[in-house]
């Protein structure tokens, strides 16, 4: 199990995990050199150099279980899930969600351009876009999760804002928020990083470790975003507060105010979950994406630190251990893309088998692993796979028969 700990908890024999594909490697206070800690002197030296936190590999709480099995057991031990909602067919919903997603990207571009030029944003148009995202979540949430990972847009600034909006809305819908709340949540997601337009792009896209001064500037972006929007009387206060406080953390280690769980608004906490998940699972100019199931495992390791333990459990249950859009390796050696999650049986989503053992296309067929399991079949998912060059081609399998 991967867990984030303070440098004071680091001890000889612990293994620092490789962060070459993770979003924190460039932060000034996080030690990220992989390897086993050899001595107390090494720990003392790291503390003296100013490092405060580190990700380490800990022994599994349940010996012999994989991360996926451990998460599955965690989920199965939870209280009964909310009643299952009737969803529209995936293929039909996917086509409508694609239209909404492309429209939302255009809206995000207009918002950023308006802010950069000092113009008042068209808030009503943005509300309509957020409303369309909410409608997609109500129709079939898996389509939004799928597109957030398989979209063909290359500009991270815009894509990230729409992905965070979509992921937050899906989670909000899962826990039972009203439509009005979901629209505001979607708006907060679309605008949560607007403050980064006030920061030099050389800092935003820096591939290496940030200096303390650069990191201090990055930490100002929630405040910059709030300042840019606070005079717009159309924007609800809970949207503004979510923008201002989405980097606050459960244990008080966040910014800008170091608030703890009881003082962080629910909208801000949800945007924070969606923000971290999308950042981990998105390709950037300076690093590759982490596989979705691994990202969820890392986030689970941040419970009681960055995240409320119950909320991160529900977030994992909402997305599924193998979220829609994931490329997965089967025990037959073939590869499949996950179409729809199964909260009741998170290891058994509905998949479409598309590639053979050599990753060559084969006649596609859709399989509901939950039904296969009930029938005693042996087909099962082994792990998530790197979609690589197939990433942008996988969307086509989501709308085809």
Explain how this protein is built.
The protein is α+β, with helices and mostly antiparallel strands and 401 residues long. The chain has 3 domains: 2-59, no CATH class; 90-319, Hypothetical protein af1432 (Orthogonal Bundle); 327-399. Helix content is 45%, strand content 11%. It has 16 helices and 10 strands. It has helices at 40-48, 67-76, 90-116, 123-139, 141-150, 156-174, 179-191, 201-204, 212-218, 221-229, 237-245, 266-280, 292-300, 309-319, 369-374, 394-399; strands at residues 2-6, 15-16, 30-31, 35-36, 53-57, 327-330, 335-340, 350-355, 361-368, 381-384. Helix 6 packs antiparallel against helix 7. The longest helix has 27 residues, at 90-116. The radius of gyration is 21 Å and the shape is globular. Mean pLDDT is 85; it is low at 74-83.
List the helices and strands and how they pair.
Layout: E1 2-6, E2 15-16, E3 30-31, E4 35-36, H1 40-48, E5 53-57, H2 67-76, H3 90-116, H4 123-139, H5 141-150, H6 156-174, H7 179-191, H8 201-204, H9 212-218, H10 221-229, H11 237-245, H12 266-280, H13 292-300, H14 309-319, E6 327-330, E7 335-340, E8 350-355, E9 361-368, H15 369-374, E10 381-384, H16 394-399
Helix content: 40-55%
Q: What is the overall silhouette?
A: globular
State the CATH class of the largest domain. Mainly Alpha
By CATH, the superfamily of the largest domain comes out as: Hypothetical protein af1432
Number of strands: 10
- What is the structural class? alpha+beta
CATH topology of the largest domain: Hypothetical protein af1432
Given the structure, what is the number of helices? Answer: 16
**How many discrete domains?**
3
The poorly predicted ranges are 74-83
């Amino acid at each position: 199990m991967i867990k984030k700990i303070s440098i004071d908890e680091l001890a000889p024999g612990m293994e620092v995990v490789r962060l070459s594909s993770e979003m924190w490697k460039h932060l000034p206070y996080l030690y990220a050199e992989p390897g086993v800690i050899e001595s107390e002197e090494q720990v003392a030296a790291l503390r003296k150099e100013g490092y405060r936190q580190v990700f380490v590999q800990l022994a599994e709480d349940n010996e012999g279980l994989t991360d996926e099995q451990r998460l599955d057991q965690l989920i199965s031990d939870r209280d009964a899930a909310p009643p299952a909602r009737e969803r529209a067919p995936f293929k039909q919903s996917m086509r409508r969600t694609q239209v909404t997603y492309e429209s939302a990207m255009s809206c995000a571009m207009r918002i950023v351009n308006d802010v950069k030029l000092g113009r008042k944003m068209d808030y009503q148009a943005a509300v309509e876009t957020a409303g369309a995202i909410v409608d997609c979540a109500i129709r079939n949430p898996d389509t939004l999760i799928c597109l957030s990972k398989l979209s063909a847009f290359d500009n991270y600034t815009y894509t990230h804002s729409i992905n965070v909006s979509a992921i937050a809305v899906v989670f909000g819908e899962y826990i039972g928020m009203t439509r009005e709340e979901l629209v505001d949540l979607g708006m907060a997601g679309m605008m949560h990083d607007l403050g980064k337009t006030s920061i030099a792009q050389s800092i935003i896209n820096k591939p290496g470790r940030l200096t303390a001064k650069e990191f201090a500037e990055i930490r100002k972006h929630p405040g910059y975003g709030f300042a840019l929007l606070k005079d717009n009387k159309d924007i609800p206060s809970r949207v503004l507060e979510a923008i201002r406080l989405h980097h606050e953390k459960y244990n008080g280690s966040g910014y800008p105010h170091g608030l703890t769980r009881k003082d962080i608004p629910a909208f801000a906490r949800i945007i924070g979950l969606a923000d971290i998940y999308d950042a981990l699972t998105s390709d950037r100019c300076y690093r590759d994406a982490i596989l979705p199931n691994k990202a969820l495992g890392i986030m689970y390791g941040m419970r009681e630190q960055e995240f409320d333990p119950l909320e991160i459990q529900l977030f994992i249950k909402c997305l599924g251990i193998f979220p829609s859009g994931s490329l997965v390796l089967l025990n037959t050696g073939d590869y499949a893309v996950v179409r729809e999650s199964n909260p009741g049986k998170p290891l058994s989503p509905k998949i479409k088998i598309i590639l053979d053992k050599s990753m060559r296309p084969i006649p596609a067929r859709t399989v509901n692993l939950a039904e296969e399991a009930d029938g005693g079949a042996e087909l099962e998912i082994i792990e998530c796979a790197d979609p690589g060059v197939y990433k942008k081609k996988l969307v086509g399998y989501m709308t085809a028969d």
